[in-house]
Structures are given as C-alpha cells and as structure tokens.
Amino acid sequence: MDYPGNLFVVAAPSGAGKSSLVKALLELDSHLVVSVSHTTRKPRGQEQHGREYLFVDPATFQSMIDAEDFVEWAEVHGNRYGTSRAAIMERVAVGQDVVLEIDYQGALQIKKLYPNAILIFILPPSWEELAQRLARRGEDADDVIAQRLVNARTEVDQARHFDFVIINALFETALFDLKAIVHAQRLKYAVQKKAKPSVFAALGLN
Ligand SMILES: Nc1nc2c(ncn2[C@@H]2O[C@H](COP(=O)(O)OP(=O)(O)O)[C@@H](O)[C@H]2O)c(=O)[nH]1
Ligand SMILES: Nc1ncnc2c1ncn2[C@@H]1O[C@H](COP(=O)(O)OP(=O)(O)O)[C@@H](O)[C@H]1O
C-alpha cells in the first residue's frame, strides 16, 4: 500500500532511551506525530491516559483484537501493547509522518504490512549502563527491572533485522543520528515521488 506520509518505527530494550529520544525529536520536528498505543499495563508515575498510552483493561484489549482494530500488537514483559489502525492510517493518508515507539515484534509486523516503513533500533552503550538507566529512572519495581534486563538480551539480538541502528551513549549524538535518518528518508521519498523541493533543481533532478 502506498501513502503520502512516512512511517518511522523506533524500538529498543527498556531503558535504552527511546521515549526520551522520540520526545526530543518531536519537539524539534513539527511534521512528525507519535502514535499513541493501547496497553493493558498500569500507568506509572506521571503517565496520563491518552498521552503516553491509552490504558485499557485486558477484556477491552481482547475485543479490539477481535474487531481487528490493531495493525499490530504483541505481548511484551507480561502486558499487551498494540497500535490501532486509526492511530496511524488517518495521519499518513494526509501526508503526516508518524513515529511508532513499539517493540521488535510489532516493528517486524509493521515492516511486513508496510515495506516502506523505516525501522530504527536504539542500543544502549553497555549492559551496565542499561541497568543503571532503568534503576535511575526509578519507575519500576526491582523484579520488573530484572525481567526487562533478561528480555533485553533477546531484543538486542533483533537489531540486525532493522534498517538503522543507533547507539544511545551521548544523548545529543543519538538525537542527531535520529534526525539525520528522518531527514534522509524524507528526501528519498521526495525523489521517488518526483516532488520538487528547490534543493533538487541544482542537481537536475526536476
Ligand atoms: N508491539 C508493540 N509494542 C509496544 C507498543 N507500545 C509500546 N510497546 C513496547 O512495549 C515495551 C514496553 O513499553 P513500556 O511498558 O512503556 O516500557 P519502557 O520500554 O520501559 O518505556 C517497549 O518495548 C515498547 O516499545 C505497541 O503498540 N505495540
Ligand atoms: N544518552 C543517555 N544518557 C544517560 N541517560 C539517558 C540517556 N538517554 C536516556 N537516558 C535516561 O535513561 C532512562 C531511560 O530512558 P527512557 O527514555 O525512559 O527509555 P525507554 O523509553 O527506552 O525505556 C531515563 O531516565 C532517561 O532520562
């Protein structure tokens, strides 16, 4: 299926910094919107319904699966998470670029459905740093953090299936990399669609 907006998928093990990076990217880029997922996980700390997630009970989530409301969904760290069709298609259809912050299982489902989607994997600089970030974030109980660190091994192994990999050591460097990927993809899309940004004129690409 072809659509005028770009789809960017960002995945990472818990604590690698993907929410912080996506939030910073959105502040810099007014053409980008984030898809708000549904989840059966309980809200933590400052999270608000409709902002970080749409928090639903397991029965509601199941009825959405049955109604085929999700373009993808997966069970991650013992909870269910899903992207509703409405969260993305209405936007890409009118030419907005949408970023999905989802796990690798969802990312691979999205790539199958929308081969033009750009898959970006964020890696932490080390296992020690990942553990420290989860502890420093201070949002999860020790057993939840332990489970996430175990799952991180499997998740990191999936990075090779992604289009791009970013190492989030220094935050500003990782943010720069993310911006560059988004920018380059937009230009590629413009060339493919024979759109004519003025910058192409000098290259005879009109
Ligand atoms: N497949 C899928 N995964 C999601 C979705 N929304 C969030 N996730 C992933 O679920 C995992 C857990 O997210 P969360 O509980 O917010 O924890 P965090 O990664 O530590 O911030 C992360 O890998 C998210 O990217 C979704 O709609 N679909
Ligand atoms: N480059 C970085 N250096 C140090 N700390 C970071 C960096 N990026 C993110 N963090 C911190 O690590 C913690 C986890 O980041 P978060 O964005 O919540 O990760 P994720 O969404 O991948 O679970 C947060 O406390 C965040 O402020």
Compressed to H and E, one letter per element, the order equals EHEEEHEEHEHEHHEHH
Largest sheet: 5 strands, parallel
Which percent range describes the beta-strand content? 15-25%
Q: Average pLDDT across residues?
A: 92
Shape: globular
CATH hierarchy class name of the domain at 7-35 and 96-203: Alpha Beta
Helical/strand content category: alpha/beta
Low-confidence stretches: none
CATH arch. level architecture of the domain at 7-35 and 96-203: 3-Layer(aba) Sandwich
Per DSSP, the total helix count is: 8
CATH topology value of the domain at 7-35 and 96-203: Rossmann fold
Q: State the total count of DSSP E strands.
A: 9
Helix % is 40-55%
Please give a structural write-up:
It catalyses: GMP + ATP = GDP + ADP. Essential for recycling GMP and indirectly, cGMP. Belongs to the guanylate kinase family. Its EC number is 2.7.4.8. GO terms for molecular function: ATP binding; GMP kinase activity. The chain is α/β, with parallel strands linked by helices. It has a domain at 7-35 and 96-203: 3-Layer(aba) Sandwich (Rossmann fold), CATH 3.40.50. Helix content is 44%, strand content 20%. It is built from eight helices and nine strands. The strands form two sheets. The chain has a five-stranded parallel β-sheet, with helices on both faces. A four-stranded mixed β-sheet has the order 4-3-6-5. A hairpin with a 2-residue loop joins β5 and β6. α1 packs across α7. It binds guanosine-5'-diphosphate and adenosine-5'-diphosphate. Guanosine-5'-diphosphate is lined by residues 11, 14-15, 19, 37, 41, 72-74, 76-77, 81-83, 101-103, 105-106. The site of adenosine-5'-diphosphate has 14 residues, from α1 and α5.
